[in-house]
């Protein structure tokens, strides 16, 4: 009986962990999609410096940011 109880508890813990992982994955997917849409729909992207000053990205940096945003969507949402 003790072995069965321990096995059942381990299975329940594994199920909880998997549910939390799926929930976290879904949240990350939503965030990645939002970031991707923002990056793709913005004409000018910038970084904020430590003093709060904006530094606008070059065309190459924008391309890199868009590619990275797409990669994150593919990673967290699966390539669709």
Structure description:
It is a single chain. By secondary structure, the protein is mainly α. The chain has helices at 2-41, 59-77, and strands at residues 46-48, 54-56. The protein has a two-stranded antiparallel sheet. Helix 1 (2-41) packs antiparallel against helix 2 (59-77). The longest helix is centred in the first third of the chain and has 40 residues, at 2-41. The N and C termini lie far apart (46 Å). The mean pLDDT is 88.
Question: Structural class of the helices, strands and pairings?
Answer: mainly alpha
Helix coverage percent of residues?
A: over 70%
For the termini, the CA-CA separation is 46 Å
Order of helices and strands: HEEH
Shape: elongated
Average per-residue pLDDT, rounded, comes to: 88
Q: Mind describing the biggest β-sheet?
A: 2 strands, antiparallel
Strand content: 5-15%
Count the helices. How many? 2
